[in-house]
Each structure stands twice: as C-alpha cells, then as structure tokens.
Amino acid sequence: MTIDQNQQSQQSSRSTLLPLAATLLTATVALYITLVAFSNITDFGTNQAFVRHVLAMDTTFKDENLMWRAIESRALQDAAYVAIIVWETVAALVLIGGTYLWVRRDHHRARRVSTLGLLMLMLLFGAGFIGIGGEWFVMWQSGDWNGLDAAMRVFTLSGVVLLVIHLPGTAER
C-alpha cells in the first residue's frame, strides 16, 4: 500500500467513524436528558424539594451578607423549577432531532441541531446550576442540597460531545 492509499484509507475510516461517534454521543446525551425531564415530570416532588432548598438557601451557612439573595416564595421557586423542566424537555427534543439527523446522514444539519441542544444543556447546567445555583445561591455550602458534582458531569459530557461533533470530518459527506 502506498502512502497516498494509506492516507486515503485513514481519511475514509475517519469520515465513517466520526459521524458514527457523533451519532452515538448525541443519542447518549439525548437519552440522558430525556430521562431527566421525564423523571422531573413524573416524580415532580423530588427535585422540586431540591430547587426549593437551593433557592431558599435554608441549608447554607446563613451568612447575613448573602441571605438577602434567598428566594422564599414557593410560587417563584416552583416557577423556576417548571422553567427548568421545560428547558430540559426542549433540549431533549432538540437532541433527539439531532440524533435523527445524524442517523439520516444529514450531517450538516445534525451538527447545527446537536450544537443547539448541547449548548442548551451547557447553559442550564453551567450558567444555571453551577453559576447561579452554586455561586449566587451558594449551593456549595449545603451538605444536603449540593448538585454541583452532577451539574459538572452533565456540563463536561455535553462539552466533550460538542467538541466531537465539531471535529474536522464529522459533518463531511
């Protein structure tokens, strides 16, 4: 095999495997966030308590310089939780659509749609849970209601998948 043939073989393999990787990784994140949204809808109370405690800041160190940030209104807490569920549901639908487009080999559209869904998750878990929940509502201070590790896992997974779908050769063909 000549050097040119070897390079062509490697490019052919990469152009087949990268879209497959993008498909499977997008499908994995789509499945995950679909299950999260489904669980939040069908078992509303479990994570409702989480959101309420984080926003109320009732398990933090209760520093008087920070407690003015607490949201104690149940209506506002529940509105925030419903907004989270809606955002998760829309992200799940977008990622399911992205997965469908990867399977259909419409790679350019799949990349755009998947990027949108992954960015939605990175905003929710990065800006929402890590930034706002973790720092503004000092969730890191709570021994019982600290979701930073879980948020970081989703943020990292979404970021890795985003990088994979943007590798050169992923959306070729």
From TrEMBL:
It comes from the Bacteria. This is DUF2165 domain-containing protein. InterPro entries: DUF2165_transmembrane. Keywords: Membrane, Transmembrane, Transmembrane helix. It holds the Pfam family DUF2165. The chain crosses the membrane at residues 17-38, 79-103, 115-138, 150-169.
